[in-house]
Write a structure and sequence with these properties.
The protein is α/β, with parallel strands linked by helices. Helix 3 links the parallel strand 7 and strand 8. About 45% of the residues are buried. It is built from six helices and 15 strands. It has one domain: L-arginine/glycine Amidinotransferase, Chain A (5-stranded Propeller), CATH 3.75.10.10.
Length: about 250
C-alpha cells in the first residue's frame, strides 16, 4: 500500500518563492480545484491520501515534497534552501513520525526534497540554488548505514533536479539534458523531453502509471510510444509557483 501526504493550498500562494520564473497572477480558486483533482488522481491510483490542513501564512506549503525524503528505512526531514520555507517542516515531521524514524538535515546544510531522485539504492541529489554540499555530505552519512549511495549532481537553468529528470519506469528516466548531464545516470534508459517543452521532465511515477502535466502533449506522446501509461492532470496554476507533479505529495509505501 502507498500513502501520499499532501497539504491544502495557502491563501497566500501568490507570494510564493520564485527563482527561474517571472511572477504571474495565480487564480487561487482554480489552483485549489486543480490541486483537488491531483489529490483525486493519487487516490485513483491506490494511494491513501493524508491531506494536511492549509498553512495560511506559508505560501509554498502545498509543495510538501521539499520538506522530507521518505525511504523504507527512515524519513529525512530537510532544511529548505529558502528560509521562508523552513517553518513548513514541523507539521510534516509530525505527520511522518508515526510512519518512519526521523533524521534531520542540520545547518549549514540546505536541502529541498525536489532535488532528490532515488533510483534503487542510488540517491541522486541536485546541487542547485536550494541544496548545498553540506546537506549532501550529511545525507551520505545518514543513508550509508542503510546501503544507499548518494551522488551529487549539478543542475542548471531550473529549480530542482526533478525539474530536469524523473523516473517513469524501472531504470527509465525522463530527462532534459540541457539542464542535467544524462551520463550521470548510466546505465538507465533515457527518454528525452521534446525540445519545445523544456519543463516536461517532471513526472510522478505511481506503480505502473505516471502522473503527468497535460501542458506537454508532445513529450506525453514520447512516453506513450515507449509504453509508459500516462495519467494526465492540469497543474497550470501550480506551475506559476514553480510547482510540478512531484512537488505536491510525499508518496511512500505504508
Amino acid at each position: 500500500m502507498r500513502t501520499a501526504i499532501t497539504r491544502e493550498i495557502s491563501a497566500k500562494m501568490a507570494l510564493c518563492e520564485l527563482t527561474f520564473q517571472d511572477r504571474q497572477p495565480i487564480d487561487l480558486e482554480l489552483a485549489r480545484i486543480q490541486h483537488r483533482q491531483y489529490v483525486a488522481c493519487l487516490a485513483s491510483l491506490g494511494c491513501t491520501v493524508l491531506q494536511l490542513p492549509e498553512e495560511p501564512e506559508l505560501p509554498d506549503s502545498v509543495f510538501v515534497e521539499d520538506t522530507a525524503i521518505v525511504l523504507e528505512e527512515a524519513a529525512v526531514i530537510t532544511r529548505p534552501g529558502a528560509a521562508s520555507r523552513r517553518p513548513e517542516i514541523a507539521a510534516i515531521a509530525q505527520a511522518l513520525r508515526t510512519h518512519r524514524p526521523l533524521a534531520f538535515i542540520e545547518p549549514p546544510g540546505t536541502l529541498d526534497g525536489g532535488d532528490v531522485l532515488r533510483i534503487g539504492r542510488r540517491v541522486f541529489v541536485g546541487l542547485s540554488r536550494r541544496t548545498n554540499e553540506s546537506a549532501i555530505l550529511q545525507l551520505r552519512r545518514r543513508l550509508a548505514a542503510y546501503g544507499y549511495t548518494v551522488v551529487g549532481v549539478p543542475v542548471q537553468h531550473c529549480l530542482h533536479l526533478k525539474s530536469a529528470v524523473t523516473e517513469v519506469a524501472d531504470s527509465t528516466l525522463l530527462i532534459n539534458r540541457d539542464w542535467v548531464d544524462g551520463e550521470v545516470f548510466a546505465p538507465a534508459r533515457l527518454i528525452d523531453v521534446d525540445p519545445a517543452e523544456p519543463g516536461a521532465a517532471n513526472a510522478l511515477r505511481i506503480g505502473e502509471r505516471v502522473i503527468f502535466p497535460q501542458a506537454f502533449p508532445t513529450t506525453r506522446g514520447h512516453l506513450e510510444n515507449e509504453g509508459i501509461h500516462v495519467q494526465l492532470v492540469d497543474v497550470s496554476e501550480l506551475a506559476k509557483a514553480e510547482g510540478g507533479v512531484t512537488c505536491c505529495s510525499l508518496v511512500f509505501t505504508s
